[in-house]
């Protein structure tokens, strides 16, 4: 890989970011008291003793949203290289290509809408 | 002096940038903490912080001191590695986001031809830290808060990208400095005039991405205690707080560069115009937070999927069409 000053800048800034976060935490762990015992380690649920583990079964609602996001976000990323070149394209071909692309992107929302994902309370037929 | 001359000037530039950005972020977090609390106070007809220093101006420093003095506690059933990775990961990318920021005509750490993409890519790490925090703390409120944040952040990222793309298509560049140079000094020469809808969508998404009210559901106190950072004490909470404020500055900076003409303004162009616009946007953030009530979660997601995304897509299509017509 070719070295560039940008790569160095990114690496240095990430290291600096880690130090920026780690410094106050390290300082706090040096200065702060270290009490333990009793019910201190209990999850905080407004004073009531928690019932069961938090990592149980979870509604599938969020999973469907994650799926649409994947469909959308990956596709939208393809438009970034197009954006840098579109200005210098000649004729209407480029426009129709983007139109087709966005049309299929839009179909994803229409599909999930018809499927009832956006209706709360949930009525999904998977 | 021969020793100094041996160091490449690019390296000196980067090191100066590192020091400057670190100071910039540190100071702005402190200032924003004060401004937010003072703004909240005055909007709610009370003085806000008043005891520490004149008009409570030293309150953020006192807060920082207090947070450092608090115990860093790991709950018994939490995953200790992931639990402490989350706050570090929240702050980790924040400084990097300022690298391509065009503060002034020559005042940038590095001029990056993919600057916009760099910011968008590394800003995504913040979502990861939230998810880790919620999952690792083994708390039902925390997990629910994390699930909400992730579905909110990923959902609002799409109209954000589409709004940003409108500008990128128009200017044919992802370099923030080039985008600023493509705009004029007078307000009617800024991109906000040609892309008002994209600006509005960007602003709404910026509120949602930084988890600010009226979209602060991940940490909705009345239903989830503190959301994903319920179990964090002292500086662990402080890190999430710092990341939130730093991200606000980043979002305001990007918005200024894309839509409001960056460092250009009537009279003399320069860093001050950039800072004035950033402060105006930050003031808007604080004002909105203490004015509007929180929305319901299904409303939040549905506004995005039913309105913002179709509108943003149509806006992009319209931009592309009009570019061919004219």
UniProtKB/TrEMBL annotation, chain A:
Subcellular location: Cell membrane; Membrane
EC main group: translocase
Transmembrane segments: 62-82, 94-114
Keyword Cell division included in the entry's annotation: no
Upper lineage: Bacteria, Pseudomonadati, Pseudomonadota, Alphaproteobacteria, Rhodospirillales
Coarse class of the protein's main subcellular location: membrane
Membrane topology: Multi-pass membrane protein
UniProt name for this protein: NADH-quinone oxidoreductase subunit
One GO CC term, this protein: plasma membrane
Enzyme Commission designation: 7.1.1.-
Record keyword Transmembrane present: yes
Species, as recorded: Telmatospirillum siberiense
Function: NDH-1 shuttles electrons from NADH, via FMN and iron-sulfur (Fe-S) centers, to quinones in the respiratory chain.
MF term (GO), any: quinone binding
TrEMBL record, chain B:
Gene Ontology molecular functions: NADH dehydrogenase activity; oxidoreductase activity, acting on NAD(P)H, quinone or similar compound as acceptor; quinone binding
Main enzyme class: translocase
Record's subcellular location: Cell membrane; Membrane
Keywords: Cell membrane, Membrane, NAD, Quinone, Translocase, Transmembrane, Transmembrane helix, Ubiquinone
BP GO annotations: aerobic respiration
Any Gene Ontology CC annotation: plasma membrane
Membrane topology label: Multi-pass membrane protein
Residue stretches spanning the membrane: 12-35, 81-100, 112-133, 154-170, 190-208, 245-265, 271-292, 304-323
Matches recorded under InterPro entries: NADH_UbQ_OxRdtase_su1/FPO, NADH_UbQ_OxRdtase_su1_CS
Keyword Phosphoprotein found: no
Major subcellular location class: membrane
Reaction(s) catalysed by this chain's protein: a quinone + NADH + 5 H(+)(in) = a quinol + NAD(+) + 4 H(+)(out)
Enzyme Commission number(s) of this protein: 7.1.1.-
Subunit-structure text: NDH-1 is composed of 14 different subunits. Subunits NuoA, H, J, K, L, M, N constitute the membrane sector of the complex.
Purpose: NDH-1 shuttles electrons from NADH, via FMN and iron-sulfur (Fe-S) centers, to quinones in the respiratory chain. The immediate electron acceptor for the enzyme in this species is believed to be ubiquinone. Couples the redox reaction to proton translocation (for every two electrons transferred, four hydrogen ions are translocated across the cytoplasmic membrane), and thus conserves the redox energy in a proton gradient. This subunit may bind ubiquinone.
Family: Belongs to the complex I subunit 1 family.
Name of the protein this chain belongs to: NADH-quinone oxidoreductase subunit H
Species of origin: Telmatospirillum siberiense
Gene: nuoH
């Amino acid at each position: 890989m070719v070295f560039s000053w940008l790569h160095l800048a990114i690496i240095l800034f990430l290291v600096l970011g880690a130090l920026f976060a780690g410094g106050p935490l390290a300082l706090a762990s040096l200065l702060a008291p270290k009490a333990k015992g009793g019910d201190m380690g209990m999850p905080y649920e407004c004073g009531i003793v928690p019932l069961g583990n938090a990592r149980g079964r979870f509604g599938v609602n969020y999973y469907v949203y994650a799926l649409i996001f994947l469909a959308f976000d990956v596709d939208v990323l393809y438009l970034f290289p197009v954006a840098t070149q579109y200005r210098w394209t000649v004729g209407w071909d480029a426009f129709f290509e983007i139109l087709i692309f966005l049309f299929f992107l839009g179909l994803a929302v229409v599909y999930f809408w018809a499927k009832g994902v956006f209706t709360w309370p949930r009525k999904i037929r998977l | 002096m021969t020793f100094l001359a041996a160091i490449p000037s690019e390296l000196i530039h980067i090191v100066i940038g590192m020091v400057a950005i670190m100071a910039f972020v540190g100071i702005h977090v402190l200032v924003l903490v004060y401004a937010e609390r003072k703004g909240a106070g005055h909007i709610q007809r009370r003085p806000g912080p008043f005891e520490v220093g004149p008009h409570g101006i030293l309150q953020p420093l006192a807060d920082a001191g207090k947070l450092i003095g608090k115990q860093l506690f790991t709950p018994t059933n939490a995953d200790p590695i992931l639990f402490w990775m989350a706050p570090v990961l929240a702050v980790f990318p924040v400084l990097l986001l300022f690298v391509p920021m065009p503060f002034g005509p020559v005042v940038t750490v590095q001029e990056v031809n993919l600057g916009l993409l760099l910011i968008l890519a590394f800003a995504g790490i913040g979502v990861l830290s939230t998810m880790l925090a919620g999952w690792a703390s083994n708390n039902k409120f925390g997990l629910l808060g994390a699930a909400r944040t992730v579905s909110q952040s990923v959902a609002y990222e799409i109209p954000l990208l589409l709004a940003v793309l409108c500008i990128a298509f128009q200017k044919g560049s992802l370099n923030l400095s080039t985008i600023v140079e493509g705009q004029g000094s007078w307000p009617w020469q800024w991109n906000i005039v040609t892309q008002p809808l994209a600006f509005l969508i960007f602003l709404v998404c910026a509120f949602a991405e930084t988890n600010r009210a009226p979209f602060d559901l991940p940490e909705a106190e009345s239903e989830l205690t503190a959301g994903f950072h319920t179990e964090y004490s002292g500086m662990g909470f402080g890190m999430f707080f710092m990341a939130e404020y730093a991200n606000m500055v980043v979002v305001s900076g990007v918005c200024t560069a894309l839509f409001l003409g960056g460092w250009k303004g009537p009279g003399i162009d320069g860093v001050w115009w950039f800072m004035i616009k950033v402060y105006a946007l930050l003031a808007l953030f604080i004002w909105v937070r203490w004015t509007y009530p929180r929305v319901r979660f299904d409303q939040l997601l549905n506004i995005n999927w039913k309105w913002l995304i179709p509108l943003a897509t149509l806006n992009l299509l319209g931009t592309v069409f009009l570019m061919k017509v004219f």
